[in-house]
């Protein structure tokens, strides 16, 4: 098991390297760079541009270097924890991103936990009472949740919160805490505001998860070992939790790696609509203005989440399922 | 009266929103103390529904609408419980289920949870029904695992089901069912999924623990051979009703009901005369048309039904070889280790196999699962390439051609000369093609005839396998297993092949349907002078259809002989073990449980001296009599010259 862990960790290094190359290449793909975009903008406003100044800026930003050197510098910086310099904000990326990274993490983890907490009981209920009124009801709600775009749901929620309750549920904290240092009161404010985006972002994920859990569990419920467990004289609840549910969990654990980036990218639109101070909207503008180090940092952050998520799910699977642990080449 | 269980007038219905379907009706029988009762019937007869009713495990839509199931627990004398009245998941029912009445199932592979250790699953059963601590539960589990013959009971507590062989899994299942020492054990087809030698061991085990624990057994099976060897009394179920019940001896010697009689007549047994035929419930009369009569052409013999029986029985003398396999070997590689240092291991699947099939002959290939018989058939079909050896096949030119070196294009003309009939009649027909398309497809692929010819051929083939030509536009799902297998046979015959390979063609079918198919195959062979290679694990079936039999074990053919010789004078210890292990539906040939070897039978390194195969000795096939070969190392046998 230990060698498996070590091997699995080791594999992550070349994976991340490949991703970083890809990310860099993709950001460089559109013609021009941040400076040309910037110059165009200036010229459009009728300002004269001094060629010497352009040369100076180019040298300062390192844009005159060949691509591979730019990449090497960026990657070397990343390794040391230096995320580079944002052209647009004229600040180091880490200062620009600031709390956004952590707020995004908090928001997305809360969403995932919300999805799991809501979908598990409902999924189990739907599977064990297949074709009952309750099952049909949840199925209908689930399809609604799947069919409705998240941002639309966000707009509806914003509107009614304002009209009916007279409150604004946008943002992740009360306005007075923005750009303030962290305090208990600020944290409480974040917690108060968190529920709305969590529900909005979580609905479609929850609906999908309920459908999948229901289908998985229904498959498992018909299996022979469940009959064996009943034949032992176990109570129905115990049978359900010890045997089929345990088996039905595998796909969910295998999903952890996917669900993280899915939730992160799914929340971009909602974040724009609800003006959440998360990474999503900033990534969008950074990509538009070719602010390459800022965009690159975000994309690497997403990649890291995916790779780590995959690692966690692999380790959990090996730990939970003896078939993977003992037969899947984990043990040697 | 010391009956433990009395079922009276039982009626179980499946209640669906728009209708009620009767599963069983008017079922009454009893099970005495320490008695073994067999519930016999074919698939769909309702025998499993009865067992589920006794266990309170009926599916949600099924209801006991009439009758009673009275359980008198010998541990609590005087009490009687009507199981049919109990709440299925209530605590009273749960105390009986698993505690006083236990059940073992057909599929040892899937009836244990793969995520929990054997020990966990057995101890759980103990703790449910007895007030014991964890340590004590473990002790009881070890005791029970020892009783069912686990080699290392203490260590096996920590093993997972997928780490065990099929036989050991079924033993673990039995241990789990018996650990609470129930009064009644229900065994639902406990050995159907197992090989014959393992089946014999498990049957012996059930008998032993039954005596040890003094319990009754309700044995549910379709195999009359198992019934003859195990049951004191038998109950025959047909279409949800009891058609006959009585002492096993009486029923076997003097079956009262027509259904029982036909069931007994449909089972192949050993001392059938050369002309004796199985009698299925419904016989198929193959009708040969003009196109097919010339099957196996290139041969001057125009054999039709007027061929004398004696000649058909000994075609070896009259005929030339169609297929000659010489010293064929095939290994599979498995990779073990990580991607830095990997270690490849060769697992031999087929080694040094030589086999000859003559025109007009049926050669039977017998062996247990995993012995390499299917791999061998794939090698002959050239679905895989052998590592070593040669495959000679007589093609259209009449010359023996070496198939091993040929590439895909060169193989093409030979592909239509060898056809295959598969084991699973459900999986081997494309559900989206009509019967017409299915039977025409091989002809289309090989560009045989024009559309007129193909149409005529399809009609003739349908006639041949006894299917109504009106069925041609139907899809496979509307046919029964036996009918589908006949469609598969028609498809294989559409190219008029020189060699037909059957891979367990009847193992998925009920006995009466099996008899029907076997008779059809025999008739077709006689009428069309066909050549068969018949692969099966069932010795009795092979005995019925084959002229010569080759016994295969661990990738090697260990003995081959004409069928009468093989059964009269088996030389190889493995052949002997196989013959000892087959349960026959014949009270005069009961299993001799003392002669059953415990797992040694199929391990070549544990065969006695002249037959042993290990690193130091690799015996070759020796001729012991005309046409009788045994793999052994003996100076007084002469090696066959090939």
UniProtKB/TrEMBL annotation, chain A:
Where located? Cell membrane
Recorded hits in InterPro entries, A to Z, give: BPD_transp_1_N (IPR045621), MetI-like (IPR000515), MetI-like_sf (IPR035906)
Q: Which Pfam families match?
A: BPD_transp_1, BPD_transp_1_N
Swiss-Prot/TrEMBL keywords? Cell membrane, Membrane, Transmembrane, Transmembrane helix, Transport
Span-the-membrane segments of this chain are: 9-29, 101-124, 136-161, 194-213, 252-274, 294-320
Any one Gene Ontology BP term: transmembrane transport
Q: List GO terms (cellular component aspect).
A: plasma membrane
Does the entry feature the keyword S-adenosyl-L-methionine, yes or no?
no
Q: State where it is primarily located.
A: membrane
- Looking at the record, the residues that make up the ABC transmembrane type-1 domain are 101-311
Presence of the UniProt keyword Transmembrane helix in the record: yes
The membrane topology noted for this protein in its Swiss-Prot or TrEMBL record is: Multi-pass membrane protein
What the record says about family reads: Belongs to the binding-protein-dependent transport system permease family.
Designated name of the protein:
ABC transporter permease
Source species of the chain? Thalassospira tepidiphila MCCC 1A03514
From TrEMBL, chain B:
Instruction: Please give the name of this protein.
Output: ABC transporter ATP-binding protein
Keyword Methyltransferase set for record: no
Q: Where are the transmembrane segments?
A: none
Give the bilayer topology. Answer: Peripheral membrane protein
User: Which GO CC annotations does the UniProt entry carry?
Assistant: plasma membrane
Which keywords label this protein?
Answer: ATP-binding, Nucleotide-binding, Transport
Single GO MF annotation: ATP binding
């Amino acid at each position: 098991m230990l060698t498996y862990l070590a091997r699995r960790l080791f594999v992550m290094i070349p994976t991340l390297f490949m991703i970083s190359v890809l990310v860099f290449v993709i950001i460089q793909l559109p013609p021009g760079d941040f400076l040309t975009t910037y110059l165009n903008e200036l010229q459009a406003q009728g300002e004269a541009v001094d060629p010497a100044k352009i040369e100076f800026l180019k040298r300062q930003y390192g844009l005159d270097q060949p691509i591979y050197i730019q990449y090497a510098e960026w990657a070397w910086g990343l390794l040391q924890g230096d995320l580079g310099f944002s052209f647009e904000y004229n600040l180091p990326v880490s200062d620009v991103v600031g709390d956004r990274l952590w707020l995004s993490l908090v928001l997305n983890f809360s969403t995932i936990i919300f999805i799991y907490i809501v979908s598990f009981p409902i999924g189990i209920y739907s599977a064990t009472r297949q074709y009952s009124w309750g099952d049909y009801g949840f199925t209908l709600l689930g399809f609604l949740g799947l069919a409705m775009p998240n941002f639309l749901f966000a707009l509806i929620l914003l509107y009614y919160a304002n009209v009916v309750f007279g409150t604004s549920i946008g943002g992740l904290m009360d306005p007075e805490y923005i750009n303030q240092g962290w305090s208990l009161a600020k944290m409480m404010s974040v917690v108060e505001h968190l529920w709305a985006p969590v529900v909005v972002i979580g609905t479609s994920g929850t609906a999908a998860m309920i459908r999948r859990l229901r289908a998985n569990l229904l498959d498992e419920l018909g299996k022979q070992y469940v009959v064996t467990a009943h034949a032992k004289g176990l109570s129905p609840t115990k049978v359900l939790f010890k045997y089929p549910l345990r088996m039905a969990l595998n796909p969910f654990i295998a999903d952890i790696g996917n669900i993280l980036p899915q939730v992160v990218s799914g929340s971009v639109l909602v974040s724009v609509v609800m003006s959440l101070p998360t990474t999503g909207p900033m990534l969008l503008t950074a990509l538009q203005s070719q602010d390459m180090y800022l965009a690159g940092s975000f994309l690497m952050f997403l990649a890291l989440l995916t790779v780590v998520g995959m690692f966690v799910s692999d380790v959990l699977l090996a730990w939970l399922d003896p078939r993977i642990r003992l037969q899947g080449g984990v043990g040697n | 009266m010391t009956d433990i269980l009395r079922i009276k007038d039982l009626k179980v219905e499946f209640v669906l929103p728009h209708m009620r379907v009767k599963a069983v009706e008017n079922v009454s029988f009893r099970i005495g103390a320490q008695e073994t009762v067999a519930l016999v019937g074919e698939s769909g007869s309702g025998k499993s529904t009865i067992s589920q009713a006794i266990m309170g495990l009926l599916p949600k839509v099924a209801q006991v609408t009439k009758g009673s199931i009275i359980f008198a627990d010998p541990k609590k004398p005087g009490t009687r419980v009507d199981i049919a009245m109990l709440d299925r998941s209530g605590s009273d029912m749960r105390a009986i289920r698993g505690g006083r009445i236990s059940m073992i199932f057909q599929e040892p592979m899937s009836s244990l949870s793969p995520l929990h250790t054997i020990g966990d699953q057995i101890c759980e059963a103990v703790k449910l029904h007895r007030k014991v601590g964890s340590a004590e539960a473990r002790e009881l589990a070890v005791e029970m695992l020892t009783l069912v013959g686990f080699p290392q009971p203490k260590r096996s507590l920590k093993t997972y089901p997928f780490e065990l062989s099929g036989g050991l899994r079924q033993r673990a299942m039995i241990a789990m069912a018996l650990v609470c020492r129930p009064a009644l054990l229900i065994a639902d087809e406990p050995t159907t999924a197992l090989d014959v030698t393992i089946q014999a061991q498990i049957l012996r085990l059930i008998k032993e623990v039954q005596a040890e624990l003094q319990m009754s057994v309700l044995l549910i099976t379709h195999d009359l051979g198992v019934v003859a060897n195990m049951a004191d009394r038998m109950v025959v179920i047909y279409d949800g009703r009891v058609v006959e019940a009585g002492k096993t001896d009486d029923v076997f010697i003097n079956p009262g009901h027509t259904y029982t009689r036909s069931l007994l007549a449909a089972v192949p047994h050993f001392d059938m005369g050369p002309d004796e035929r199985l009698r299925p419930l419904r016989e198929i009369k193959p009708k040969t048309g003009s196109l097919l009569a010339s099957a196996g052409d290139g041969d001057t013999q125009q054999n039709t039904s007027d061929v004398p029986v004696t000649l058909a029985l000994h075609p070896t003398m009259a005929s030339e070889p169609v297929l000659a396999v010489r010293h064929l070997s095939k290994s599979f590689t498995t990779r073990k280790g990580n991607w830095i240092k990997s270690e490849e291991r060769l697992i031999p699947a087929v080694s040094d196999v030589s086999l000859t099939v003559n025109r007009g002959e049926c050669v039977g290939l017998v062996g247990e699962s995993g012995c390499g018989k299917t791999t061998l058939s794939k090698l002959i079909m050239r679905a895989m390439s052998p590592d070593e050896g040669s495959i000679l096949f007589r093609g259209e030119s009449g010359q023996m051609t070496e198939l091993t070196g040929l590439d895909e294009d060169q193989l093409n003309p030979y592909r239509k000369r060898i056809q295959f009939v598969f084991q699973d009649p459900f999986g081997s027909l494309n559900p989206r093609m009509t019967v017409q398309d299915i039977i025409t497809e091989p002809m289309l692929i090989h560009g045989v005839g024009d559309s007129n010819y193909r149409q005529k051929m399809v009609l003739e083939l349908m006639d041949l396998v006894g299917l109504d030509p009106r069925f041609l536009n139907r899809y496979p799902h509307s046919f029964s297993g036996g009918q589908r297998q006949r469609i598969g046979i028609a498809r294989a015959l559409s190219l008029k092949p020189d060699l037909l390979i059957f891979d367990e063609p009847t193992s998925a079918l009920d006995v009466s349907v099996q008899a029907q198919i076997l008779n059809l195959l025999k008739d077709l062979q006689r009428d069309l002078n066909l050549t068969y290679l018949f692969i099966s694990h069932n010795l009795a079936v092979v005995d019925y259809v084959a002229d010569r039999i080759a016994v295969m074990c661990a990738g090697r053919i260990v003995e081959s002989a004409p069928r009468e010789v093989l059964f009269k004078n088996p030389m190889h210890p493995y052949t002997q073990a196989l013959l000892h292990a087959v349960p026959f539906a014949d009270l005069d040939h009961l299993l001799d449980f003392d002669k059953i070897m415990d797992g040694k039978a199929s391990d070549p390194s544990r065969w006695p001296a002249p037959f042993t195969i290990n690193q130091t000795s690799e015996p070759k096939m020796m001729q012991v009599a005309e046409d009788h070969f045994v793999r052994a190392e003996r100076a007084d046998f002469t090696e066959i010259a090939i």
